[in-house]
């Protein structure tokens, strides 16, 4: 599965459509009629491995969701006490809170409309969304979001939404020290949450950074043995993916381009496919052949229960783990900045053999 943040973020590239147009105010009935008429499409599961179809679906879904978001804001201005406003605004904020370009405005919007949230459960959800938007609005200084996160955790102690908030915060940041602090809080403050176990796994994975990783397997497609030890001296990228993962499929062309650009400079890509069972192996092999993926594929058929997935603390895909030329884990998840970090590792001197 993709992370909650990643799943929500795919809808945000069309946020320019969300603004409410100036003009005479419409009646609540007219706004609601249009809102109910806008249908967000559902993905076609039969085309899960088709990158073009996935991108087309995402664009159509983004347009429809953006229109509904604009209508929600329009209704909140025309009839703020309408009983449907809270649910419509929550659906709107699912989109706007996940984009750094709109997260700050979302915080202000939530502050300005919370007084209309009479139902405590919906008010709590809005408060959690405000905390998430605060995190997203500080991509370069995540510590600045801690006070708002702490306020939510203080006002709603032991609430499962607090565990989700800490988990999402930890997933979204790269600072290993802050990530470790958040994961420890998650495990300590929510010991009975299913997320506590995954936090412990992620903490163990953080300790792997800077240490060697042993990995030996037989390529599930080419049937040849693969060993990280034999690749020492090269920069290795482990691509955790699945054919059912839309963002994974959509990102493959970019990974292929990076592989082609840097393979002669010392880059090796290894796929770690997470489709389950023998049927999953067949789907993976067909996808690899259809899309011309030139690198070996690890496939044990165990999906999220794979020992390799658990050892490296992979909690959402796509995930890209970088192994440096010395054979040590360098990056636990570089999927959104691989093009940025690769040159640094490729230009590092090769270790003595």
From TrEMBL:
Q: Which GO terms describe its molecular function?
A: oxidoreductase activity
Question: Membrane-spanning regions, if any?
Answer: none
Q: Which residues form the Thioredoxin domain?
A: 194-351
Alphabetized, the UniProt keywords read:
Cytochrome c-type biogenesis, Disulfide bond, Redox-active center, Signal
An annotated GO cellular component: cell envelope
Q: Report the InterPro entries cross-referenced here.
A: Redoxin, Thioredoxin-like_sf, Thioredoxin_CS, Thioredoxin_domain, Thioredoxin_ResA/DsbE_sf
Question: Where mainly located?
Answer: other
Q: Name one GO biological process term.
A: cytochrome complex assembly
- Signal sequence interval, chain numbering: 1-21
Tell me where in or outside the cell this protein is found.
Cell envelope
Q: What's the protein here called? A: Thiol-disulfide oxidoreductase ResA
Q: Which gene encodes it?
A: resA_17
